[in-house]
Design a protein that fits this description.
- The complex is a heterodimer of chains A (105) and B (154).
- Chain A has 105 residues and is α+β, with helices and mostly antiparallel strands.
- Chain A has one helix at residues 3-18; strands at residues 20-25, 33-40, 58-63, 77-80, 83-92, 98-104.
- Chain B is an alpha+beta fold.
- The longest helix of chain B has 13 residues, at 4-16.
- Chain B is globular.
- The chains are: A alpha+beta (105), B alpha+beta (154).
- At the A-B interface, strand 5 and strand 6 of A face helix 3 of B.
Chain lengths: 105, 154
């Protein structure tokens, strides 16, 4: 099995186990879609749980970048627990995953 | 010497009254006070700024003999975080925000903020400055500086 396939399988297992349902709204107008992402530790901890309904200001969200069409880019929006976040940065890794850096609007 | 706390509120209020700035910031121009227990620390407050928004924070006072009547100069940081410009026909970037801040009149008419007495006992501000900064995720943001002398010793 190729390394990329192994990583894809691992990412899928992690997303299924630790993932949170989010709504991805691309800026190209193609319509909102449901995704699963893993909320990661941000640069600075805040006084609410990331992804909670109270809404932290900054979230880092791991997604399976290669499986999303259109691919996320800065300027898109992600909604988590009814809180809307802008995608301010996209860090893509070589194996098809990406960390989206989100800031509350 | 004047208390900087109400002056911080006054600066935020005046900036909020600049129509173009208010629109660009979605009305989110707030004053920060170092009230431990009521507010987050300044670094966290800046980190938590939503897009778009502005934060006004007193950053210190310099005492000295500047001229015949000026012995206090207060300094405020004006933190900007612009909104998402994706799909916006006429985006308002940081250059535009600074130009609006320095030139557009509060209330829509009259002098701009640089030529206003923002609080009783203050002189008009020294020529303001702004600098580029990076946030914790290396995203661009800007911080302006207002240095405002007091008239005499209040």
């Amino acid at each position: 099995m190729a390394w990329s396939d192994l990583v894809n399988t691992l990412d899928g297992a992690c997303l299924a186990t630790f993932g949170t349902a989010v709504t991805f709204t691309p800026q190209d107008g193609s319509g909102a879609q449901q995704l699963t992402g893993i909320i990661q530790r941000p640069a600075m901890g805040e006084d609410y749980v990331p992804g909670s309904v109270q809404g932290t200001s900054v979230i880092r969200l791991f997604v399976r970048f290669a499986a999303i069409t259109p691919p996320p880019r800065h300027g898109d929006t992600i909604t988590i627990s009814a809180i809307v976040y802008d995608v301010v940065d996209v860090d893509v890794d070589a194996e098809g995953g990406a960390v989206l850096k989100l800031r509350v609007t | 010497m004047l208390n900087p706390a109400p002056i911080t509120d006054a600066i935020a209020s005046v900036l909020l009254s600049i129509p173009e700035l208010n629109t660009a910031m979605g009305g989110r121009i707030t004053a920060f006070h170092y009230r431990l227990g009521q507010e987050h620390r300044l670094a966290e407050a800046i980190y938590k700024m939503p897009a778009p928004s502005m934060l006004i924070a007193w950053e210190g006072t310099k005492g000295g003999n500047f001229d015949g009547q000026t012995i206090w100069k207060h300094r405020w940081g004006i933190y900007y975080r612009m909104g998402n410009a994706a799909g916006v026909a006429e985006p308002v970037g940081y250059e535009d925000l600074w130009w609006i801040t320095c030139n557009r009149p509060p209330g829509g008419s009259g002098p701009n903020i640089r030529y206003m007495q923002l609080y009783a006992g203050l002189d008009i501000m020294d020529t303001p400055s702004i600098d580029h900064e990076l946030d914790e995720d290396l995203i661009d943001r800007f911080k302006g500086v207002f240095i405002i002398p007091e008239i005499g010793d209040n």
